[in-house]
């Protein structure tokens, strides 16, 4: 896959899945704009990329703040003629019993995971309409396909991402813009450092046994990796998937099959 001269934006590119996707896109020749809250993490990724003479820059962005995202759009318009690829990976996740779901947790989860992707898709589609071409990937989750206990806000936000994806794909397909979503199962990233403790409480497990618990219920008997996600993202961004839009692709070792 050759992404030379392609311009890509990755939100949440400073950590986990977004980091893996950013490294992979840069490896294939794309210029990668890493838009993230945390400057330290994102700059580490930019440095890894530029040390290899590949192309990347950092833009500090809170995806939940529509004014911030609009300004980011103005910046992109001024600096780049077009945007080819956009990956919405920024997100948060909290496992906690339903009656501990505060209004604040609900609002924050929706603001970042769902409104954040809505804000970013507005800019992405606007930039892609310049050339009537582009490909967008929204990170949903296995929890966007099936609800699980103690996870109401997160599940609702990730179900919402699938609706947002389908609706955009229907509206902008005629203008050459494809919008797809990915539903990963468990991918061990920094997100799981705290989350495995919360999950252990939910299942009454030792936190050190949580990942083995997951592995044993997955038909392929392993967790997903950020490289697994990056490969699928690259395929869905590329022209190799030119007839695929509005889809949510499971990436879960067979854990769920619908
Ligand atoms: P991660 O390692 O925690 O990375 C998330 C990144 O998003 C971090 O760099 C974080 O920055 C950034 N972020 C958070 N809030 C933001 C905001 N308001 N504006 C801009 N950036 C923000 O998580 P991950 O595991 O890679 O997850 C990436 C995406 O995949 C998420 O959407 C997640 O829901 C989804 N997903 C993950 C899994 C999994 O098992 N890991 C499974 C299914 C779906 P800070 O560090 O500064 O907060």
Automatic annotation (TrEMBL):
InterPro entries: NAD(P)-bd_dom_sf, Sc_DH/Rdtase_CS, SDR_fam. Belongs to the short-chain dehydrogenases/reductases (SDR) family. One of its GO terms (molecular function) is oxidoreductase activity, acting on the CH-OH group of donors, NAD or NADP as acceptor. This is SDR family oxidoreductase. Gene3D superfamilies: NAD(P)-binding Rossmann-like Domain. Keywords: Oxidoreductase. One of its GO terms (biological process) is bile acid metabolic process.
């Amino acid at each position: 896959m050759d992404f030379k001269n392609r311009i890509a934006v990755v939100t949440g590119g400073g950590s986990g899945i977004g980091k893996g996707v950013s490294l992979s896109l840069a490896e294939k020749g794309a210029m990668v704009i890493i838009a993230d809250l945390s400057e330290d993490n994102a700059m580490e990724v930019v440095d890894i990329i530029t040390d290899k003479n590949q192309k990347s820059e950092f833009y500090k962005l809170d995806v939940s703040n529509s004014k911030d995202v609009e300004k980011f759009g103005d910046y992109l318009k001024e600096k780049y003629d077009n945007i080819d690829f956009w990956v919405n990976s920024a997100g948060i996740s909290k496992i906690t019993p339903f009656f501990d779901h505060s209004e604040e947790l609900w609002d924050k989860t929706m603001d970042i995971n769902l409104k954040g992707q809505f804000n970013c898709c507005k800019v992405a589609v606007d930039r892609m309409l310049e050339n009537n071409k582009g490909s967008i990937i929204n990170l949903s989750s296995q929890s966007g396909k099936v609800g699980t206990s103690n996870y109401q806000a997160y599940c609702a936000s990730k179900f919402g991402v699938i609706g947002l994806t389908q609706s955009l794909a229907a509206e902008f397909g005629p203008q050459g813009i494809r919008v797809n979503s990915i539903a990963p199962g468990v991918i061990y990233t920094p997100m799981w450092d705290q989350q495995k403790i919360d999950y252990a409480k939910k299942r009454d497990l030792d936190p050190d046994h949580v990942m083995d618990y997951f592995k044993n219920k997955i038909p392929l008997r392993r967790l997903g990796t950020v490289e697994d996600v990056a490969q699928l993202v690259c395929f869905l961004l590329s022209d190799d998937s030119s007839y695929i839009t509005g889809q949510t692709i499971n990436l879960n070792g067979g854990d769920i099959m619908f």
